[in-house]
Amino acid sequence: QIQLVESGGGSVQAGGSLRLSCTAPLFTLNTCAIYWYRQAAGKQREWVAAITFDGSTNYADSVKGRFTISKDRTDAKDTVYLQMHSLKPEDTAMYSCKTPGTRRCVESWGQGTQVTVSS
């Protein structure tokens, strides 16, 4: 299990911005992609964005052009950010980050961070 910790959620008005963070142990991003998912109340979990170990990114159509995923490394940890602009009420959800289960990476989930967008 890889310890993933999300932060940065909150309540904003429509049109606002938030930046979510997903911290992981140092060097996690050498072998693991990081995915952001979200789940709104009463709805199925939805994939939002991904960044691979080589920096390639991909986005769900619903957030393309508004969300940007990026990564950073300090001496102590790896961090993946999800910068969210032009937020809409339909972006309201619990956002979680995940590492995929691959030969070089253990599947793990963070605890999530809540984003609420009011109209």
* Number of E strands: 11
What is the average per-residue confidence, as pLDDT, rounded to a whole number? 96
- With helices defined by DSSP (H or I, 4 residues minimum), what is the helix count? 0
Q: Secondary-structure element order, as H and E?
A: EEEEEEEEEEE
Name the beta content range.
Answer: over 45%
Radius of gyration: 14 Å
Counting helices, strands and paired strands, the structural category is: mainly beta
Q: Which bin fits the share of residues in helices?
A: under 10%
> Could you say which overall geometry the principal axes of the C-alpha atoms support?
globular
The largest sheet is:
7 strands, mixed
Low-confidence blocks of residues = none
Identify the quaternary structure here. single chain
Distance between the termini: 38 Å
Summarize the structure.
With about 120 residues, the chain is mostly beta strands. Helix content is about 0%, strand content about 50%. The strands form 2 sheets. Strands 2, 4, 5, 6, 9, 10 and 11 form a 7-stranded mixed β-sheet that branches.
Characterization of this structure:
This protein has 119 residues and is mainly beta. The chain is built from no helices and eleven strands. Strands 2, 4, 5, 6, 9, 10 and 11 form a seven-stranded mixed beta sheet that branches. A hairpin with a 6-residue loop joins strand 4 (34-39) and strand 5. The N and C termini lie far apart (38 Å). The model has no long low-confidence stretch (mean pLDDT 96).
